[in-house]
Design a protein that fits this description.
The complex is a heterodimer of chains A (400) and B (288). Chain A has helices at residues 4-32, 49-68, 92-104, 116-128, 157-172, 185-200, 220-227, 244-253, 268-275, 296-309, 316-319, 321-332, 340-347, 368-371, and strands at residues 34-42, 72-74, 77-87, 109-111, 132-134, 176-182, 204-212, 233-237, 259-261, 283-286, 352-353, 362-363, 365-366, 376-377, 381-387, 390-397. With 400 residues, chain A is of the alpha/beta class. In chain A, strands 2-3-1-4-5 form a five-stranded mixed β-sheet, sandwiched between helices. Chain B has 288 residues and is mainly α. Helices cover 75% and strands 3% of the residues of chain B. Chain B has helices at residues 2-29, 36-53, 58-87, 92-113, 137-159, 161-171, 173-178, 183-209, 216-230, 235-255, 263-277, and strands at 127-130, 133-136. Chain B has a two-stranded antiparallel ribbon. The longest helix of chain B has 30 residues, at 58-87. Chain B is globular, with a radius of gyration of 19 Å. Classes of the chains: A alpha/beta (400), B mainly alpha (288). At the A-B interface, helix 2, strand 7, helix 7, helix 8 and helix 9 of A face helix 1, helix 4, helix 8, helix 9 and helix 10 of B.
């Protein structure tokens, strides 16, 4: 006998069954997704941990976001992205071990390493095992023929430095310039190319040999003789985010009134806490960071990153790009998923919408001028000026 | 030149305070505490959290750093070092334990406080600029506080009952035990004091140099350097080592600047020669 109670019961059962079937269907669909492993080999511990941590967290945030929204469709298959990480502790030997681990796991696309010597050390392993890697290191030999497996993940200082110095010469009347760098391969090579660029622009280089240990905590003794030379611009070559506020603060406390700049990415919060108002006017290079240029997708990325890790790192404005490039290139040519030769072929003519910038900006591979082949991500060259806890865009440039 | 000397004296005062805790623990227990730098970092982060984040007075933050590290130091001595010293006859066992705790602290600090450099608002604003010397007032305050802490520590070790007991332990552990000194108790107090000093100096210097999770190792190395110059286990030696290193850095970075980063090369070379002549450092003997 059908009564109201049994009707309600049947409807409830039906609803529960439908929901259950739908849930099973969704989980089945997710389970059906294949797995695409993307590697990360970089520094996530020790004094330079900030460089690699912002890298790997950007990848993890983006991967979680993509997986949550159903995965990434490449060819006829849909993939969940799995980020496989390895902390090389900024040690080239460990970087090699990390790249070998990636090879053993059958990974063909690796983001990192973060420094010059690590990036150079992993080259033979990457080339022997068919791995394309995206270092944040500047030696041109990594990207010029006969090398072909490394793709520079950011703007190199020899690309941004001349643009910044030229801008400051023309707009701020800079004539005398001084360089200070940590006594490590990356900062020293950045300093040398900076000096070269400054001289080419006709600037007077008043200091170019001053260096410091990367673990220096008090920079007053380092900067005392440089400040006495009264340069118009003090360049902190390749400065680590942890050291930038300390150097700025020491220079200002010693009475330095000129401009201060660097070609590396920095974090506004770190500058605010470490140097306060002394950091106002500090010029650095970032990514899709400032409100003027960031798209809604970039803003959501920042929100998701913050939710996932508690605090955003402005360095991720640049480091958000590598994973996006890998996935979009694979989408453009699904055959590249297990064949890096296909990936290299695709790079030459690759173009896709840039989701992190407003307007119709494109993702593409560049570097033909600097390296003779397209082995660089076209990350926007956003030159920022720090002001009261945030970065403001000074100018936006690009490389070809 | 006045500026160079002022920089050296300031650096020396902060270095001496860093080295004191390390030399105290070595004197009492013959333990090279590789985690000293990590304790400094932890102290810095506690002050950062209490003063910089929670907005409580700086003194409260400094106390919190000191007390927390003292408790951690006491627990480490009681449950880790005491056990290892009792069970193992090999001196390197304590060194391995200390190195392990350093790695452990590094990982915990990175997890708890993240990878970023942290800083707090200045405790005193303004810059002294006269007689050829430029020195921010907060550095003057921190330098003066460092000297006060060093003096208080020396006086405490010299005249207090606890200080005398610890000096007796450092001179001859067995003899002190036979004279009724409670070895376990004073070892624990000594370790706690050493850790507390690391925490306090970390808290003090976070106002000047900030703190990040990766600097523990380098801080420890610098502290070892000072202790080696002055003589391991000697309070006066640690103080002298701190001031000598600070002055060498300041002078070297000015005089040798045209030759690139050779200051530390020169310091290490000089140290090698010095140690070959005086392997026990300047004052290489225990307390007293």
């Amino acid at each position: 006998m059908i009564n109201r109670r049994s009707t309600l019961k049947s409807m409830a059962l039906g609803a529960v069954s439908t929901l259950a079937i739908a849930a099973v269907g969704i989980s089945y669909a997710q389970a059906e997704n294949k797995e695409l492993k993307i590697g990360f080999v970089g520094v996530t511990s020790g004094p330079a941990a900030a460089w690699g941590t912002s890298n790997v967290r950007s990848m993890q945030t983006r991967a979680a976001w993509l997986n949550e929204t159903g995965g990434v469709k490449i060819g006829n298959d849909t993939y969940n992205i799995n980020i496989v990480t390895f902390d090389d502790q900024k040690d080239p030997k460990r970087a090699i071990a990390g790249m070998e681990k990636m090879a053993q796991e059958g990974i063909h696309y690796v983001v990192g390493p973060n420094v010059d010597d690590g990036a150079a050390a992993v080259r033979p392993v990457a080339e022997a095992n068919g791995i394309i890697y995206f270092p944040y290191a500047f030696p041109k030999a990594l990207y010029q023929k006969p090398a072909s497996n490394a793709v520079l993940g950011m703007i190199a200082n020899y690309q941004s430095g001349p643009a910044i110095y030229k801008y400051l010469k023309e707009n701020k009347g800079v004539k005398k310039i001084a360089f200070v760098a940590a006594n490590e391969s990356d900062p020293l090579s950045q300093r040398d190319s900076g000096v070269e660029a400054a001289k080419a622009l006709g600037l007077e280089v008043v200091a170019q040999n001053d260096t410091y240990q990367n673990d220096t905590r008090d920079f007053t003794p380092v900067l005392t003789p440089i400040v006495a030379l009264k340069p118009d611009l003090l360049v902190l070559s390749g400065v680590a985010p942890a050291n930038a506020p300390l150097l700025i603060r020491a220079a200002r406390e010693l009475g330095y009134e000129g401009l201060i700049s660097t070609e590396t990415a920095q974090d506004a919060k770190v500058l605010e806490e470490g140097a306060g108002e002394y950091a106002n006017g500090f010029i650095s290079v970032g990514g899709a960071s400032t409100p003027e240029i960031a798209s809604d997708e970039m803003k959501e990325f920042v929100t998701r990153y913050t939710k996932m890790f508690g605090e955003y790192n402005d360095e991720s404005n640049t480091k958000v790009y590598a994973l996006e490039y890998i996935l979009d290139t694979l989408k453009a040519n699904p055959a590249a998923i297990n064949d890096v030769a296909e990936f290299k072929k695709t790079m030459d003519n690759f173009s896709a919408p840039n989701p992190f910038l407003k307007g119709d900006a494109k993702l593409s591979y560049v570097g033909a001028t600097s390296f003779g082949q397209k082995r660089q991500l076209a990350v926007p060259m956003v030159v920022n000026e720090y002001k009261d806890g945030a970065f403001q865009t000074l100018f936006v440039g690009s490389v070809d | 030149m006045e500026q160079v000397i002022a920089n050296g004296l300031y650096l020396g005062a902060q270095y001496a305070l860093i080295a004191l805790g390390l030399t105290l623990i070595f004197a009492l227990m013959n333990v090279l505490n590789f985690a000293h730098g990590q304790m400094y970092v932890l102290g810095g982060f506690i002050t950062y959290t209490v003063y910089g984040q929670l907005g409580l007075p700086f003194v409260v933050a400094l106390l919190a750093s000191g007390v927390t590290l003292a408790v951690i130091g006491a627990l480490m001595e009681k449950f880790l070092f005491r056990t290892v010293i009792r069970r193992s006859h090999r001196e390197e066992s304590t060194m391995l334990l200390a190195a392990a705790t350093a790695f452990f602290f590094d990982a915990v600090i990175l997890l708890l406080f993240g990878e970023k450099q942290r800083g707090v608002p200045k405790i005193v604003k303004g810059v002294f600029n006269d007689v050829g010397i430029i020195m921010p007032y907060d550095r003057i305050v921190v330098g003066a506080l460092a000297i006060v802490f060093i003096a208080a520590f020396v006086l405490y070790m010299q005249y207090s009952r606890v200080g005398r007991a610890m000096r007796a332990l450092a001179q001859d552990r067995v003899a002190a035990q036979l004279m009724g000194v409670r070895v376990d108790r004073y070892s624990m107090i000594g370790f706690a004091m050493g850790a507390m000093l690391a925490g306090v100096v970390g808290g003090l210097l976070v106002t000047i140099t900030g703190v990040n999770s990766g600097i523990g190792g380098p801080i420890s190395i610098k502290a070892f350097l000072m202790v080696m110059i002055g003589g391991a286990g000697v309070v006066g030696g640690a103080i002298a080592g701190g001031f000598i290193l600070g002055m060498m850095e300041s002078v070297g970075l000015t005089v040798l600047r045209e030759y690139g980063d050779v200051t530390y090369l020169v310091i290490f070379a000089a140290l090698m020669v010095f140690l070959s002549v005086r392997p026990n450092g300047l004052m290489g003997k225990p307390w007293g």
